[in-house]
Sequence to fold (627 residues):
Amino acid sequence: MGLATIQVFPEKVRFPLNEEMYGVFYEEINHAGDGGLYAELIRNRSFMDARLPEGTAWYKGKACTALGHSENHDLSDDLPGWHVRMTGAARAQITGSTDAPRNPTVPNQLYLIAEGTSEGSVALLNDGYWGISVEPGEYRLTVIVRGNVPSLRVSLEMQYGGEAGCVQIDGVTSVFTKFEVLFAVTKKANGCRLAINPLSDGELWFDFVSLFPVDTFCERKNGMNRRIAEKIKALRPGFLRFPGGCIVEGISLENAFQFEKTLGPVEDRPGCWDLWGYRRTDGIGYHEYLEFCEDLGASGMYVINCGMSCQWRESEHGTPEQIDAFLQSAISAIDYAIASPEENEWGALRAKNGHPAPFPLKYIEIGNENWGAQYIERYNQFYRVLKKKYPQLIYIINDIGRYPDIRPEGYDLFDEHFYVTPQRFPAMAHRYDTYPRNGKKIYVGEYAANQEVGIGNMAAACAEASFMINMERNGDVVKMASYAPLLCHMRDRRWPVNLICYEDGNIFGIPSYHVQKLFSEVRPRVIVQSNCNVSSFTGETKVDTVSGLDENGDLIVKISNFSKGETTVCITAEGFVPASLIGISADSPETENSIDDPENVCAVELPPTASFNMRPYGVYVLRMEAE
Ligand code: AHR
Fold:
């Protein structure tokens, strides 16, 4: 048992805390978008999923880049996600085809031949992303198809029998035609599959099959899963960082994120092999990222490739021509976001795509996790041009190491990443205390206590709280932070610990989610001086604290108790009395949340008091009002 005495001096204001201090880091990893945030329910809707990663060739059973980086790839199934079922005397076969494509950029199709449909049935099936979850309401089915079977019956089959909804498409001809039909789903069901039944014998070439709920976040047609998006919005992010992460860089430059390919009608987007092990649709494309910023009320942070592929994966350092192409692409992307429609073709294209007003793009990060003299050289090349053209934007750098012949020519924020054990964060309590106050400003772009913590437990959440407290205490140096990664489909957990998890229509936040939400919700406007004295018999008590005033003049005191034992805390602040107390704690540091117990650890309102016992690994926020 320890004792922490916290003395707050509300009149001693130190500095303002950045209003956009906490944001979210989004990357297509763990099926964050496809099968998660993106509301599309059909997997491999454009039949492109079997394609080799861009910039690779098949060599000794692997997809290999020119520089020798290799990735596993399954060539045994040319139509992942799709299969066919026959009953009675009916017969059918499906194969992948690239013959006579509707759009050569998205050439892959599914060819189906069906026979004997009058003596049985044929169904083309898609299980979505480990099962399709639906709720009563309207759904939009889009099919682009040609062939000599005029009518198709499309249904949502439930896993234990019966249908959640169905609709018929009539008028299929030998010319590719886009059918878009709305139909009602009458049941709530998980684990459904889409079944397309040709109602007569013949051949069909499917180019695109998509299913969306009409009820998406902010009712966008090509929109986000409402429940997952609301969970993100509840974090009140000041900014949205996109599109990553390593996918910005790719395993080769050909595989790097290219915003131009993510614009326009979704059926014309080729998607891209995603270095987290699957092909992504790019249905959440550049335009949708920016719309999502708007819908979240967040500023946009676009991370651009500076002509280097991922340095963890045999980096390809682009030629001068390639580097120039990436720079031109960055300029086009920025113009797409903020130029007026009259100013240039990109501003005009944004208007044509339904958004004449500029998007809230505010930050540009040049490169992701890049380093070395070659990086600085490229950084400078990009920074020089972009800063001159768009002086209003905030520029973020990855590496400011000292290299003999080259230094960064300028930057606004330096991005640091930390993936560590829980013990590490409290040990870093004084990391920023000694930074020169007029020196570099920090953006902690990725951080999490993600080692030896299961899928994310209370100890990790408390450790991050301690780090966040220390970031706030040094908010004149640390300007922004984003926990990473954000999302995870539990059936494809590529990264050990992720903030929001889901499966079969169920969503939960790990304990860290509740800390992120609490710290973002209760955000001081200015940080004030406070002292904390800790005494303990065992010497194992580790308490971190920060205090500040919010926009109403209320005093906020945040405290983390990264200790094995309970700690009594006594808070004094002259002229202020306790108004509310919120705690996040658990019976053990290993406690996690899960699909079955989603709120096992969550924020709980406690009786307001300035003196109380903090549970081991507990996190607390006390609000005090002026007397
Ligand atoms: O957040 C997952 C990955 O971690 C990111 O893609 C990368 O930037 C970092 O290495």
